[in-house]
Amino acid sequence: MDEAMAHYWNHDYAKAHNLLKGMADRGNIEAAYRLANMYEFGEGVEQDYGTAHYYYKVAANGGDIVSMYIVAMHFFKGRGAEGNMEKSIYWLKRAARKGNRKAAYTLGYFYEKGIGVKESRYWGNYWYKKAKE
Predict the structure, then answer these.
(1) d(CA 31, CA 100)
(2) Which of 31, 32, 46, 64 is least enclosed by beta carbons within 10 angstroms?
(3) Does residue 114 lie within any of the structural domains?
(4) Please, which residues have CB within 8 angstroms of residue 18's CB and are 6 or more apart in sequence?
(5) What is the residue-level pLDDT of the chain in tens, covering all 133 positions?
């Protein structure tokens, strides 16, 4: 991972991409997250939200809570994946339950406003409190 990131920080994106892809395809969570970033922001590769979403999901399924939140927001916005509120809420809850405060706050807002879920002051407050923990 160190070698891949050294190439990345030195803007040798082709070498970084090759190393990260190999590691990500073998299940390395951090490599999957970094590779997803490269695709999302077009760093050394053509910007591709679908591929970014794929690698964020690899990292999310491996337990990365930042990737879980990003996957949720991709489903919410329909970016790199078809818009799907049910999947967005699923990933937000997974991330929030593992301690992602941003995901908890977003859930609080969604429940407060009834976005993709039944409006609920109780659940809104519950998730807002989790975001402060």
Answers:
(1) 20
(2) 46
(3) no
(4) none
(5) 899 999 999 999 999 999 999 999 999 999 999 999 999 999 999 999 999 999 999 999 999 999 999 999 999 999 999 999 999 999 999 999 999 999 999 999 999 999 999 999 999 999 999 999 8
Count the neighbouring beta carbons within 10 Å of the beta carbon of residue 27. Answer: 12
Number of domains in the chain: 1
> What are the DSSP calls for the chain, one per residue?
-HHHHHHHHTT-HHHHHHHHHHHHHTT-HHHHHHHHHHHHHTSSS---HHHHHHHHHHHHHTT-HHHHHHHHHHHHHTSSS---HHHHHHHHHHHHHTT-HHHHHHHHHHHHHTSSS---HHHHHHHHHHHH-
Chain length of the chain = 133
